[in-house]
Amino acid sequence: MTEHCAELGDQLAPYVDGELDAAGAEAFSLHLAECATCRHGLHDALQLAALEVRASGAPPVREARPRIARERVRRWSRRSTLVTAVAAFAVMAAVLVVLRSRGGPGAPDAPVVLATAEVRSLEGRVSYGAADRYRRYSVVRAGTAAAPADAIKLDTLARLERNGDLHGVAAAYLLLGDPARATAYLDRATASPDVAADRALVLLAGGRAAEALVALDGVLETAPRHPQARWNRALALRDLGLSRMAIEAFAAVAELGEPGWTEEARARGQALADETNARKAAVDAVLAAGPQLATAPGGITAELARRVQGTTRLYFYDAVRGAATAAAVRALAPLAQTLDAAAGGTALVAYLARTARADFARRGPLAARYARVVAGEPLDPAAAGEFLAQLRAAGQDDILLGAMILTSPDRRTVPPALLTEFRRLADATGDLWFRLLAVEQQARALLARGDYAGVEVAVLAVLPSCRTGALDFRCMRLENVLAESYRAMLRLSDARRVISRGTTRAQRRGEWYFEQSYLSQLAILETLEDDVSATTLPLGRAYIGELVLRDPRCANEVWGRGIIATMLVNREDNEGARREMERGGAAAVRCPTATPTFQDMFVKAHVARDDEVPAVRTEIAKLRAASTTTPGEQAALDHTEGRLLIERDRPVAIALLNRAIAESRASAHRDVNSHKAQSYSYSTLTLDAGHAAEWPRVWQLLGDEAGVSIERCGLGVATEGRRSVVVVRDVAGALTGSYEAARRGSELDAAHLISASLRDHLGGCGEVAVIARPPIEGMPTLLPVDIVWSYRSGVARTLRGSAQVSSSRLVISNAEPPAELGLPRLLPWRSAVAADVTLEGAAATPSNTLTALANAGFVEIHAHGMMNAAVSDASFIMLSPDLAGNYALTAAAIRNQPLLGRPIVILAACHAGATASYRHEPWGLPAAFIEAGARAVIASPDVIADTDAGAFFDALRMRTEQGVSSAQALHDVRIEWLAAHPEATWVRSLMVFQ
User: pTM for the full model?
Assistant: First the structure.
């Protein structure tokens, strides 16, 4: 041991324990670089610390035994010559990186070593100085994930935590590939842009790119040049398939000029650009050559055909139909063979052989004309009808099949009058490609007339045929229609799932323009989800940004600006919405064919200045007069004009809003435009009446919309943005209320909406009926637990046949969700009285449950509840999987099951009462059960304690069997339970819906 080492050797233990001051730690770190003996000692001390932690089974915490560690180091010093074979990696860990922690409160200015290896295995960047040294990205190409390249010792973690540097601990765990522990420390760390960026990194690394993008955009709003957030945002955009946006994001990273990161950002951006351009170029080449394929069969090479099979096959059929001679047909044989080989069949070669044997004296002229139509020759309706008649007379059914689409006004949908014939011709081909095409055409016709449920039935019946990749093109088109129908029905999770599947097909099959189609659907979806989520704006901007970068026509920019403006209106950022509309207007100048849309009018109704009102009303009148405007759109326009005038010409506005309600009443249950027009009009009228202190009118409007009539002991609540109105009907039937024009605070607190003075007017009421517009309905804290109350709605369907209350009791329990979900097994259900019908274990599937629900009069469901937007727009109940693998009992499924026994339903599942409160309707399991025919639903939006649930809900059931109302039963049992179990706070969140 050298003299200098002997002098500093006793500082090793204090260094390990974090007891040295900043200067001493700095000096000892520099000494380590020169002294091999002390480096070996450090390694042994760290190994001992690690063994102690492993033996305890505890996570890294502050060192509890500094004296013992110091004594061990001293013993080690006396036999240092015996430990010269320590691992070299510990040496590197001590000297390769000497970076300083950004530090927590009170952290000494001591060096910290995190980024130890020469390469990194984490693709994203950690927003912590000691973890963000540039290293080349390198992972092992193996079937299993490689261990993280960084080796971070446990004493380092303990020192960071001891110094209060929780972000540093989180950063270490991120490098070690332990996101769960990283999240735990990030949750405790002091809020900052760096901490927020690393929360987003956890989401990104966990495959949740959309959520990561939202979080990263939030970071960049406060710190626009944040390097790690910029980098990780580029990765998130790439993972979402938004390649053009990702290329721009990598360029933004390169602008910062960071050594190493700049070069990698440029390389990644260039590689992504090359791959993206190549995919687009392949499709463009097919689109350019396809219309001339009948006369230039070599225009699409075999390699190109294999890369873009769907679009190539589409043009192949057109080429065969447009080939005027047998020789021209046979010239397409190489392409037919290539496509058949890729698809794994012989359908195209067989079709070619049949066609080549045709009588071309009859077929040739018709084929030549068809080729001209494919190339773009227009046909007026008379000429189109004549051409179709000639094809029928000549028996050229394959050409007729294509001509029915190409001669239609939009060149993509078969006229409704021809659908039956089209379906017959498609079936006669024996080619599944055409059968799927016929279903698509049928589905588009159903969509056009608003039969969205019919679209679902038609498409789902044939989607199992899509297992073969050869049909991906047709299946993408089917899924596109299905997604539109789900959007119209506001089944947004279903729409997102279908769009995601379609996007994957499009990317897999090189169908660039299908990707764009799905991008526009995703943007619209974000607009719809914006009613319930404050996080959709970044995603909407990203999808629209990608769409405009891919197709920078002014029409796309104008449309995109309107989407963003709508989202800003939903946030009451009318100035921001106005700026977007002005930018869209500037872009529209370049679009001579651009016309205002319903969405534009909706935004303008919120942002227009007084001098602009006449022009907006003129645009609304033009849209009303358009022949293509549907009844639902007419109602939406009436609402929009009423909203525009409500503070300018109140009598005219009220008349327009009442007309919108009347016009939409018949179709609100099946047409989303009608539904929104009706709901938004009720909202505007109710808040307007509240502003005027017209309490009887407020009460009437709330009751009319809910479909209930309450003469006494009622509470009504409506909110929109920061405005709210509350009206109370006391025990004598007298009305009073309050109106708030600008609620303070950004969050809606239901418990403070109803003032104490208004609650006093409910004194003497045995039970209070609450009518609440979204987003209030479903909030459990609206009234205190000492009041007997329930949410009321009159939306229950009129049931056909027997609708008498059944006495049959159904219990679903002990379900067995898929093991891979990792859910704990619930305690076995027990009841003092056996149920009439029981579904449990493997039999407790969604399909069996729906069947059993039909005739039950009392229902209990004891199961896990979950909220997951990928499965359902609201919460759902997790049951045992059925044969198709479905384990989720969703609101959408319940809504379609008539409950003939008019049951009382107890949902003893966590989150079962959670409601997705769209601006125009509350949606969730309670609303679905009520709409299906339930008398009452008891549920909670929060967690339910499994140990207490059985006894509590059994007591609740027995109380309802004594003839008291569900609200009274819940009140009585809850008060008794809280008296005996004051810690059981979960019972406070239970609600009754009737």
Answer: 0.75
